[in-house]
Write a structure and sequence with these properties.
Elements: H1 2-22, E1 26-28, H2 42-47, E2 56-60, E3 68-71, H3 73-78, E4 86-88, E5 92-97, E6 101-106, H4 110-114, E7 119-124, E8 146-150, H5 161-177
Parallel strand pairs: 1-2
Antiparallel strand pairs: 2-5, 3-4, 3-6, 5-8, 6-7
Helix pairs in contact: 1-5
Length: 178
Amino acid sequence: MAYYNKTCVVFFLIMMAFFRGSMGNVYKVGDSAGWTNTGVDYEKWASSHTFKVGDKLVFNYDPAKYDVVEVSQQDYNICNANSPFSKYNSGNDELEIITPGTFYYICSDSNMCQADKLKVAIKIDKEKSTPSPPFPADDPNARPCMRTNSGAAAASPLSLGTHYLGLLASCVFALFLH
């Protein structure tokens, strides 16, 4: 029985290291303030992080006041939300980075975007990212930058806990079989 305990623990530790290295980080845009016009410098916030493929961005905000709109660089520069790639308005939007590049997000209220600087450019580092998955080239409306889970529960680095619990349960089950 001691042999199985050792084997299970070693396997569990190896799998933890594997999942830890292959899963991305979770970033709450604006940190504790979230996505709001309360003086957060989103340009400074974004430049203080190195984003990579597999990371997740979480936009938390009051949906009665704010939204998140993905736009082109030109529309970002002039705070124009009339031709968005994507629009999110759940108040808790989770976006998973699936390819390198620079992506631009604004609040569709032009006053909040222009005067309050409620906008952020997210640069995904190519050198620190793994190769991106295949992208369906036949869909003209698809964006190669992000998959979304709008309205998702608050993101947490502990979300990996479900993977670890599954591995632990498998090990415990294996111990009872032997």
